[in-house]
Amino acid sequence: MSLPARQPSGVDGWRNCQAGGFKQAAIGCSFTVRYTFVGIVLMPRSAEATRQRILDAAYVLFRRRGYSRVSMDEIASAAAITKRTLYNHFESKDQLLAAVLKAQHALALAAFKTFGDALSGSPEAIVDELFRELAVWADRPRWAGSGFTRLVIELADLPGHPARVIARRHKAVLEAQFADRLRKAGARQPRELAREIWLLSEGAISLILVHGDRKYAAAAAVAAKRLLAARSG
């Protein structure tokens, strides 16, 4: 996540005020209009920037060290704010975690949509590209697999935790989008096929993380194409 840039006043400020995964519109330079589930909320621009800074700091710390090992004091320090200001924005660490996950879900969804929109051709070509991208992703510095999966493992003894609910929804939405892409490519039984291929991709991510070997992505691609061939036969 990146910090939102300062916005100019007037029309340009209104046009450019899309940040953080929320639908927003600027009123001059003083307030942001946020469209929420409960209606329209006016927030001072400085408060909005502070909130985003908190989300950025919490995301980095949770990603690097895990949820349980990070304190609210550390998040406040990383965001360069007081602990009181932090609690003015988020009543608890659980609430902050939920906000971080929702923001990350929105970013991942947008990235996957961009990836999906660029795909074309046969289901086999789509599978090749999916696992090729997985290998590229796994080669990034400090890569540590799926943050959503790691969090669910960390909270394994808390099945009803809100963060686990968000993580389940995140995985389900991405799987459904992949199924839709396969359907448009003419695959048979796209929902069932998407689930099987998604299982291979999640397994490949875990094994790449364990062994540090990106060849598991290629092996998963081979297995996925065998599934495709079996359904086409």
UniProtKB/TrEMBL annotation:
ATP-binding as UniProt keyword: no
MF-aspect GO terms: DNA-binding transcription factor activity; transcription cis-regulatory region binding
Keywords carried by this UniProt record: DNA-binding, Transcription, Transcription regulation
DNA bind region: 71-90
A Pfam short name: TetR_N
Domain HTH tetR-type: 48-108
Domain of life the protein comes from: Bacteria
Protein name: TetR/AcrR family transcriptional regulator
